[in-house]
Write a structure and sequence with these properties.
Layout (H helix, E strand, L loop, with lengths): L1 H11 L11 E3 L2 E3 L3 E9 L8 E9 L2 E9 L7 H13 L6 E7 L4 H6 L24 H12 L6 E6 L5 E3 L2 E5 L4 H14 L3 E5 L12 H6 L5 E5 L8 H17 L14 E3 L1 E6 L4 E5 L6 E2 L4 E6 L5 E6 L4 E7 L3 E2 L4 E7 L2
Parallel strand pairs: 5-6, 5-7, 7-11, 9-10, 10-12
Antiparallel strand pairs: 1-2, 3-4, 4-6, 8-18, 9-11, 13-20, 14-16, 14-19, 15-18, 16-17, 18-20
Helix pairs in contact: 1-5, 2-7, 5-7
């Protein structure tokens, strides 16, 4: 009964600025009820940079309901979410939709066009580490500011769509953030189940200050909006299985939020990882992985090594605990401080 009450609260209560159904405006893009509108959010030039644009689509349903924000392309070589939103842009029918869906097709256009991993070529910053952004900051910080004001603030629920970046071999999983208010955390858990992935990382370490939320999805949580980060795909691939998994997940959310009558059922027996760790390299050099994504490893098992450019072993990496490899770097290039592997386990 308590779960049902929480779900009802976040499905129909006003937890953002917009609860359909009236015309919904996102920047210069306005969608009347029962219509779809597309356009761009502008990030003007400042301090010598060229500025950028964010392509968006607003699907405004014919009946009242939640406002679901879907954001892709936060990192430059994460292609499956971008392609999934291209499919969803035409697959979601506003005539049968209750509420609205806001899609940001490519959040980080400089990195996308330059095909860079992790960091923007414009300012060297990771867009998913600078939220909620600054209107007078670097280009990445200004992108984050626009997304916060124009997208997250207008939404009732938020999903940050990711995959492994161009160097990450990754098995699919979802992050469930628990550091927000209990009702927001519970609503986030229900969203994670509705998205349907069978691996869920329980994240208890996100910041709680809305002025220093750091991550896109956490920016929603610190503002009282249930939010997820999902991962499907990797290694700059565009495989249909990873794209379809995201489509299926969004369809599950639309059903769960009562925005659409049909859709897949939630996952019933997921693996909840309440312990996880990113192992990082202390050296720059050539990386050799010794395990694969999805592999179960014992505590202390060798998971890889990095050598210098003459073959000398600089560091050997071992599993900090027994668990499952959620991602491992799949390319030789390694910089000091970068991730090597992400391992998760149940307690």
């Amino acid at each position: 009964m308590r779960v049902a009450t929480v779900c009802l609260l976040f499905t129909f209560a006003v937890v953002g600025r917009a609860v359909a159904q009236e015309p919904l405006r996102v920047g210069p893009v306005t969608a009347a009820p029962g219509t779809v509108a597309s356009g761009t959010l502008e990030v003007p030039p400042r301090g010598g940079d060229q500025g950028t644009t964010l392509p968006v689509t607003v699907v405004n349903g014919s009946k009242p309901g939640p406002v679901l924000a879907l954001v892709a392309g936060v990192h430059g070589q994460e292609y499956t979410p971008v392609l999934a939103l291209q499919r969803l842009r035409t697959a979601i029918d506003p005539a049968s939709l209750s509420g609205a869906v806001i899609m940001v097709h490519v959040a980080n256009m400089p990195s996308y066009l330059a095909r860079t991993i992790y960091y923007s070529p414009a300012d060297g910053k990771n867009l998913n580490r600078v939220f909620p952004g600054r209107a007078d900051g670097t280009l990445s910080e200004r992108i984050a500011d626009v997304i916060t004001r124009e997208v997250i603030d207008r939404a009732t629920h938020v999903v940050d769509l990711h995959c492994g970046d161009g160097n990450e071999s990754l098995r699919p999983y979802t992050y469930w953030i628990t550091t927000g208010p209990p009702d927001v955390a519970e609503a986030g858990r229900q969203m994670a189940l509705a998205f349907g992935m069978d691996r869920i990382v329980v994240d208890r370490e996100r910041p709680v200050d809305p002025k220093a939320s750091v991550y896109l999805s956490n920016t929603g949580v610190t503002r009282g909006k249930p939010a997820l980060t999902i991962e499907s795909g990797g290694m700059a691939q565009t495989d249909n299985e990873s794209i379809a998994r995201i489509e299926r997940g969004v369809a599950g959310l639309l059903r769960h939020l009562k925005m659409r009558a049909d859709g897949p059922a939630p996952v019933t027996k997921p693996v909840l990882f309440d312990r996880s760790e990113v192992v990082r390299s202390n050296f720059t050099g050539i990386f050799y992985g010794a395990v694969e994504k999805g592999q179960t490893v014992a505590a202390g098992a060798v998971i890889g090594r990095v050598t210098d450019f003459h073959g000398k072993v600089l560091e050997e990496f071992k599993a900090p605990f027994a668990g499952e490899v959620l991602y491992i770097i799949g390319t030789p290039a390694m910089n000091k401080g970068e991730p090597v592997v992400f391992i998760a386990a149940t307690r």
